[in-house]
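In the current project phase, our protein records have gained a C-alpha cell line. A sample record follows, to show the layout:
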Amino acid sequence: MVIRSAEPLLTQQEAAQRLAVSERRITALRKNGDLTAYMDGHGGTLITMESVLRYQRWAGRGGRPYSAHMAFAALYLISGEAAPWITRQERYRLNGYLRAITADDIARLTRRRARTHGYWCPEAKLPQVRACIRASAATGDLADRFQLTRITTVEGYLPETAVDDVIGRYRLRRNTGQVNVRLHEARFLPEGRGAMPQGVCAADLSESNDPRERRAGLTILGELIDNFNRKGHRS
C-alpha cells in the first residue's frame, strides 16, 4: 500500500519565523484556513509544513480570496457546470474576473473553499471512505485525467457536519505520521454526487507541494479558463 508521509509539523513560532510574520498573524492565518493546524495534545498548536509552503507561494499576492460559495462557483463555471447558488449579479462579476484571470490566480483566490486535513485510515476501510466522499484531486480514476500515477491515497470533499461521523465510523486518526486520506471539510458544499468537477480537482492538485501534481493542476486550470472564455460564457 502506498501511503504519503505526513509533512513535518512546526510550532507557531517556527511558522512565524518561516513566513517572517508575527505569531498573531499565524493565528489569524490559521483561523482563516490558510494554514492547517493540529493540537499537540498538550494545549499547543502545530502547523503543517505543507500549508506553510503553500502559503509562501501566495504571500504578497494581491486580491482577496473568494468566499466559499463564490470559490466553488468559479471552479464549477470553468468546468462547464451550473452554479445555481449564486445570483445573477454574482455570476456577472465572476464572468468578468474569469476573463482576466490566470491559473495561478484562480488557485490562490479559491483557496478558502474548504479546510483540508490529513488522516490515517485502516486499509480495509479505505473503499468505504472513498464511497462516502466526493472524490477530488487524483483519487482513483481521476488520476488518469491529469496523467498522474494512480496511488491509494483517498482525497475528497465532505460537509463539515458529516466529518465527525466519518472519523468515528472508519476509525480515522490524525497526527500518526502517515496520511492516506485527505478530507476537504466544507461549510458550504454544492449539492451533487460523484467526483467533484474537474476545476475543483485541478485546484486541489495545484495546492500540492509535489511539483508534478501542482503542474498538472495548474495546466488543467489554464485550459479550463481558456475554454470557458473561448465559448463566450457571459450569461
Summary: The longest helix spans residues 211-230.
